[in-house]
Amino acid sequence: MLIGVPLETSQGESRVALTPETAKKLIAQGHTLRVQSGAGLAASVTDAAYQAVGVDVVDAAGALGAELVLKVRPPSEAELAHVRAGAVVVGMLNPFDAEGLQRMAAANVTGFALEAAPRTTRAQSMDVLSSQANIAGYKAVVMAANAYQRFFPMLMTAAGTVKAAKVVVLGVGVAGLQAIATAKRLGATIEASDVRPSVKEQVESLGAKFIDVPYETAEEKEAAEGVGGYARPMPASWLERQKVEVAKRVAAADVVITTALIPGRAAPTLVTEEMVAAMKPGSVIVDLAAGRGANGVGGNCPLTETDQVVQKHGVTLIGHSNLPALVAADASQLYARNVLDFLKLILPKDEGLKIDLEDDIVAACLVTRDGKVTKP
Ligand code: NAD
């Protein structure tokens, strides 16, 4: 099969869906690979590195005109103009963007959105949400440490003792757990909150303290269980009590990392303006939900400005909406491996393209086919 990989054109996107490592494996399986010149440069992969493993370096139209196109972000209208009818596009195609899916369907593209893969053991090696969230959690702490005007670790020096930074992590999925682990490695003391009770043990095993907000009603308990491992919106009664507990911790914190998301919905507000105003001057908030608040504004904090670093009430708010792109080389390496593992399902050895809807991962990821959006 002819497989093409274009240069990503979304603002700030520096990742690439193919690395020389994954290209080599696909070529060994008999596929022909084309990559757009410069597609890997922002992720430290040169054209020569692709050519060395047998990839043809072509222009945008050449890469987009393949039978199978590997992407990081959904194809733009301009990109779709070069994608041939009936071609397959695999990427993070944003299954919640009805308009984008409609555009792909109208172009008669078969789309596989990798974010829609189930959170099962078999799907783990192709779980792009996890591979990228892990990087975001790490980078969030590194950025916080960079913006923070004090040390993270406790230090005893001849010139006196420096206290360890207090870090609060709100939302402990994949990104939150990595944020805790990274802050711990830097020597901070950490407290964390999540709606899902199963998280407590994971937080404690990383040496952080869980902010307990007990469930008082059957409704609260049921909502907290979530669905498929994901959070559901919590009842207002619980959120009110969580707010009180979180507000106390945030006021005492030096650094707050927020990562709370609910798939397909606006990110919950966890740090209000009032809470920011109560923080110490010089504190830092990194909002991983930037751009995902109500109507795409704000994040877990309404003061967050998407893709900006701003100062409000003496607090630095970091609102990068694509942290994995700032660790482009490793993010691409892990993403490309996720893509390669998914391709094993639709390009079985010695067979052509096979879309087996009996396979739960293939069926879950399929978003457009035969001119139609297959996912509501
Ligand atoms: P996510 O990015 O969707 O959300 C981040 C976190 O925010 C979640 O832990 C969520 O519970 C939390 N959250 C939502 N609303 C909140 C609120 N009001 N207050 C505090 N926290 C709130 O999550 P994710 O990283 O994609 O992980 C979701 C789940 O999937 C986790 O349980 C994770 O362990 C699980 N998972 C399973 C697999 C697998 O089995 N293969 C792979 C990856 C992740």
UniProtKB/TrEMBL annotation:
<comment type="similarity">
    <text>Belongs to the AlaDH/PNT family.</text>
</comment>
<dbReference type="GO" id="GO:0016491">
    <property type="term" value="F:oxidoreductase activity"/>
</dbReference>
<feature type="domain" description="Alanine dehydrogenase/pyridine nucleotide transhydrogenase NAD(H)-binding">
    <location>
        <begin position="145"/>
        <end position="319"/>
    </location>
</feature>
<dbReference type="Pfam" id="PF01262">
    <property type="entry name" value="AlaDh_PNT_C"/>
</dbReference>
<keyword id="KW-0547">Nucleotide-binding</keyword>
<dbReference type="InterPro" id="IPR007698">
    <property type="entry name" value="AlaDH/PNT_NAD(H)-bd"/>
</dbReference>
<dbReference type="GO" id="GO:0006740">
    <property type="term" value="P:NADPH regeneration"/>
</dbReference>
<dbReference type="InterPro" id="IPR007886">
    <property type="entry name" value="AlaDH/PNT_N"/>
</dbReference>
<keyword id="KW-0520">NAD</keyword>
<feature type="domain" description="Alanine dehydrogenase/pyridine nucleotide transhydrogenase N-terminal">
    <location>
        <begin position="4"/>
        <end position="136"/>
    </location>
</feature>
<keyword id="KW-1278">Translocase</keyword>
<protein>
    <recommendedName>
        <fullName>NAD(P) transhydrogenase subunit alpha part 1</fullName>
        <ecNumber>7.1.1.1</ecNumber>
    </recommendedName>
</protein>
<dbReference type="GO" id="GO:0005886">
    <property type="term" value="C:plasma membrane"/>
</dbReference>
<keyword id="KW-0521">NADP</keyword>
<dbReference type="InterPro" id="IPR036291">
    <property type="entry name" value="NAD(P)-bd_dom_sf"/>
</dbReference>
<dbReference type="GO" id="GO:0050661">
    <property type="term" value="F:NADP binding"/>
</dbReference>
<keyword id="KW-0560">Oxidoreductase</keyword>
<dbReference type="GO" id="GO:0008750">
    <property type="term" value="F:proton-translocating NAD(P)+ transhydrogenase activity"/>
</dbReference>
<dbReference type="Pfam" id="PF05222">
    <property type="entry name" value="AlaDh_PNT_N"/>
</dbReference>
<comment type="function">
    <text>The transhydrogenation between NADH and NADP is coupled to respiration and ATP hydrolysis and functions as a proton pump across the membrane.</text>
</comment>
